[in-house]
Amino acid sequence: MSRMQPELKLRLKALQAPMESPLNKGHQSNGSEPPNDATLRNTPCPICQEKFEPTWSEEEQDWIWQDAVRVGPRIYHASCYNEVTKDGPARNPEPQARTSTPDSVLGKRKAEVYSKSHRGHRRQYISLPYPVLPALSHLSTAFVRDLLLDPKARDAGDVAHQVAAVASSSSKERAEQFISSVGIPGPCAAYGSYEELAADPNVQVVYVASPHSHHYQNVMLLLEAGKHVLCEKAFTVNAAQTRILCETAKKKNLFLMEAVWTRYFPLSIQVRQLIQQGAIGEVLRVVADTSFGDDVENTFPPSHRMVNPDLAGGALLDLGIYSLTWVFQTLYHTLPKEQRKAPAVTSQITPYHLTGADESTSILLSFPTSTPSNDSHPKRSQGVALTNIRCAGDPDEQGTAGPNIRIQGTKGEIQVFGNPFRPTKYRVIPKKGLGAVRDVECPFPAGGRGMYWEADEVARCLRDGRLESAGMPWEESIVIMEVMDEVRRQGGLKYPESIESTKYPLQL
Ligand SMILES: NC(=O)c1ccc[n+]([C@@H]2O[C@H](COP(=O)([O-])OP(=O)(O)OC[C@H]3O[C@@H](n4cnc5c(N)ncnc54)[C@H](OP(=O)(O)O)[C@@H]3O)[C@@H](O)[C@H]2O)c1
According to the UniProt record, where is the region Disordered (predicted)? Predict the structure, then answer.
């Protein structure tokens, strides 16, 4: 086994070749001659005779040939090779293996075992002091409740979360009240200012859920104090602020992530994988609607975060970000990093008559790429991102109006049901003659809200020393903020100078 280990670690990762389909790229191995794609695709594993399958790696953000090892001149499934050599030292396994392991499913079956033991090898218990800022917001409550649920219920036994401190900008009493009302087990410190929390040497990573007008100042405070940060969406008021936050995190070697929780749902991951596997052909159009039919004048006083320009209020930054999330995670994020290109943007805004914040925004996005293969034709795709706080995408909240998300490809469509930020089901509709319609329900383990998945990602990034999450990379947060900047520019929506400012520190 000890002789095998270096080989087992050998994972063949696709080389970056911008103009090629991800499936047509070359591959690299540790030090040895990289096998090219043709070798891997046309030569089955000599042991099980199954062809090697490329899979998309969220971590690598690229196609990888999993479970493949080079032994001398040949490439095997690591699991097959391991199986046939487990009783003795590594040897040329071919003749013996072919006769002793005629079962053609060996590769897959053993790959499963391999990946389990591989995960087990890396398993590490993370005890994460997880202070929360600020106190008593509706959202912090949901987030902390999710953190306190048993990770094993969602098959996340490698992480554990601990809420170590809570801060309120209003008073220490609010923080204390939050701790007791949510039932956070001690020890958990309560602070009456964000500065005190930032100065606490025991604090490791902070979840920021203040209004987005304040994110830039709050996150800068924490980064300057050497804290890792998970910050709610919209990340900041504008792209310039996001850029500075990312540069600061990089410079200080700190983790930073925009808390777009929906991206970490198993549903989102499955939909992205289906696209990457070509389940609906080349994806050319996505329509996403995040709209709520509120009685705006009677629901939101002008001071409310939802419509108050002083707090960067409005549908776009609060809800439209989810429509953009769906457009981006399907049409942009499903491409290899080097192929992702920012879209051209056309938009319309309807201002709320009492405050000037947007109550309705419609965005057309034109990407100079198509996914998953970005073939020379059509090599273009379109996104439609809609948001409105006065008319609903799902008026009876029963789904009668149809899905809020439609992802349309040359071979079919994927529909996503439920709130775009917390969808519960997706449907795959193959083109006529290409198969049956399939519905997939995606439940929330332990009755959680679903915020635990992004929290688990933070813990794993910290454990593995990653400064950003592959699921929500800094570069993509910046491009999305740039789209929202452009939409506001086209619609003439400006926020007060103080909250658009990149000056730090600034008293808001
Ligand atoms: N992921 C999601 O599903 C989701 C859902 C809703 C909202 N969000 C995002 O999360 C953030 C917070 O939303 P929320 O609905 O939780 O907001 P909220 O209920 O209005 O809470 C905001 C909290 O921020 C603190 N705060 C600091 N400065 C403030 C100021 N000048 N005015 C008002 N509050 C101030 C307050 O707590 P203290 O006084 O105790 O400091 C307040 O309780 C926003 O960026 C929003 O877009 C995300």
Answer: 1-43, 85-106
Residue 234, preceding peptide bond in cis (omega within 30° of 0)? yes
| pLDDT of 362 over the 80 cut | yes
- Which residues constitute the domain of residue 56? 5-122
Claim to verify: residue 354 and residue 479 sit in the same structural domain? no
Tokens of 297: 């004048």
The packing angle between helices 106-122 and 78-85, to 10°, is 90
Question: Ligand 1: which of 132, 133, 137 to mutate, judged by most atoms within 8 Å of the beta carbon?
Answer: 137
Residue of 136, 148, 141 lying closest to 176 (CA atoms): 136
Res 139: pLDDT: 85
The per-residue DSSP string of 229-246 comes to EEEESS-SSSHHHHHHHH
Identify whether the C-beta of residue 210 lies closer than 8 Å to the C-beta of residue 169. yes
Together in a domain, 15 and 130: no
> How far lies 313's CA from each of 220, 302, 474, 493, in Å?
21, 10, 23, 11
Give nearest CA residue, ligand 1 atom 25: 210
Sign of the torsion formed by the C-alpha atoms of 274, 280, 283 and 286: negative
From 144, 207, 305, 480, mutation site for ligand 1 pocket: most ligand atoms within 8 A of C-beta: 305
- Binned at pLDDT 50, 70 and 90, residue 340 comes out as very high
**198 with 289, same domain?**
no
Protein residue with least CA distance to atom 2, ligand 1: 139
Nearest to 161 by CA among 171, 152, 151: 151
Residue 345 has pLDDT above 90, yes or no: yes
Sheet of strand 381-388: strand arrangement: 344-351, 358-367, 381-388, 283-291, 405-409, 412-419, 422-430, 438-441
In whole angstroms, give the CA distance from residue 239 to residue 244.
9
Number of domains in the chain: 3
pLDDT, one tens digit per residue, over 254-273 is 999 999 999 999 999 999 99
* Cut 0.90: pTM above it: no
Evaluate: CB of 168 within 6 angstroms of ligand 1.
yes
**Closest atom of ligand 1 to CA, residue 318:** 47
User: Which helix (DSSP H) or strand (DSSP E) does residue 74 occupy?
Assistant: strand 74-77
Between CA 298 and CA 374 the distance in angstroms is: 47
DSSP letter at 283 equals E
Same domain for 433 and 332, yes or no, is yes
CATH of the domain at 476: 3.40.50.720
Given a cut of 70, whether residue 439 has pLDDT beyond it is yes
210 CB within 6 A, ligand 1: yes
